[in-house]
## 1
Amino acid sequence: MKTTNPYLQSRVIIPACMQIALIIYVISALQMAPPIVKGMLSESSFPVMIFLIATPAAIKQLLDGLKASKKELAEAKAETVTKKKSIKPVLTVVIMAAFILLFPILGFAVLAPLYVFFFMLVYDDKPQYILKKIIYALLISAVVYVLYVIVFDIRFPQIWR
């Protein structure tokens, strides 16, 4: 049997994919508007805050994953194990990229529930209770919308004028 590369495991790939997605996310947000316009927060300020908080966390997770992989590689000289590779990291990046690319076309109201719903499908080990997932996706999207519009006073672009 051939051992799988320890650097291609989820503890390394997921943080790396998350960092790539965060970079794409913040670049797309900064293309909309600067984070502060006339002393007021704009719609791109929240993604910048997310980027500033999540980047160190993703880098720490990546370094921890690399450290654990090195340790596993050193310990697994005699033992060979075949592990099933996960497609979840790739699906995560694809979902995020689709959300970012389609946001100017379809807007928040259409994409946010789909975004949350697809993440629930990807990370649920037993895909069931679809109606429950749809309701949760709608509720989560509504809460995020209220946070943006009412709490942070950030307006989404009007795409259907």
## 2
Amino acid sequence: MKKLTREEEDRLDETHIKEIWNELHTRFGFNLKEWKPRFEKFVIKQSRETNLMSCFYQFGHDNINPVLNEILGRQRLYPTFTNLVEYVISKSNLKPQNKNSK
């Protein structure tokens, strides 16, 4: 499994998770009413020490990545989900910050 860099891991937050869900729905037609409950069930099975971002990344790698690769005709282990996460994180860094914040 291709890992996120430590910096990307630290920057991944709930806003990014929402954006990733949106990208999955918009670009690939994921039925979020089906996928979000699957993720919630996955989170419940994790230890309490596991944070939500780690859960999401692991769920995406194990469950979403194979589906994306099937849709895109890629090899099963190609890191498509990781690349999507990296894209969303980098895209959010390019957005102009609020002019009132310093």
